[in-house]
Write a structure and sequence with these properties.
Protein name: DUF4398 domain-containing protein
Helix content: over 70%
Shape: rod-shaped
Organism: Rheinheimera soli
Number of domains: 2
Number of helices: 5
InterPro entries: DUF4398
Largest sheet: none
CATH class of the largest domain: Mainly Alpha
Length: 139
C-alpha cells in the first residue's frame, strides 16, 4: 500500500503533464461514449401527417388552401432534413407542419361557420322582404 501510494505520488509529481493528459483522454472517452446521434423526430412527423390528414378530411383546402399547402411543404422539408441527418431542423419543420395544418383546420372551420352565417342572413333577408311585401299588400 505504501509502495503504491509512493509510486503514485512519485509519478504525479514527476510527470504532471502525463497525468493530466491521461485524465483528459479518459474524460473525452467517457463523454464521447455518452454522446449519441440524435434520433429522427418520427413522432413529430407522424403528428404532422395526422394533422394534415385531419385538415384534408374536413376539406380545409376549400377554405384554407395556402395554409394547407404550406403545412405539406413543411412536412416535405422535415423528411428532407431527416435524410440529411439534420434532426433539429427536421423536428422544427415537423412542428411547423403540424401547426400549419391545425391553422388550416381552424380556418376551414371558420370558413364553414361564415358560410352558414351568410346563408342564414340571406334567409332572414328573404323573410323580411316577404313580410314587408305581405304587410304592404294588407294596407
Amino acid at each position: 500500500m505504501y509502495l503504491s501510494t509512493n509510486l503514485s505520488s512519485y509519478f504525479s509529481s514527476r510527470y504532471p503533464s502525463v497525468r493530466n493528459t491521461v485524465l483528459m483522454l479518459s474524460l473525452t472517452a467517457v463523454l464521447a461514449s455518452c454522446a449519441s446521434a440524435p434520433e429522427a423526430p418520427v413522432g413529430q412527423i407522424q403528428a404532422a401527417e395526422q394533422a394534415i390528414a385531419a385538415a384534408e378530411r374536413i376539406t380545409a383546402s376549400d377554405y384554407a388552401l395556402p395554409e394547407l399547402l404550406e403545412a405539406r411543404a413543411d412536412l416535405v422539408s422535415a423528411r428532407t432534413a431527416v435524410q440529411n441527418e439534420d434532426m433539429l431542423a427536421a423536428s422544427r419543420y415537423a412542428e411547423l407542419s403540424k401547426a400549419g395544418a391545425e391553422l388550416a383546420s381552424a380556418r376551414a372551420g371558420e370558413g364553414k361557420v361564415r358560410a352558414v352565417i351568410d346563408d342564414m342572413q340571406k334567409n332572414i333577408d328573404v323573410l323580411k322582404q316577404e313580410m314587408q311585401r305581405k304587410t304592404g299588400q294588407m294596407q
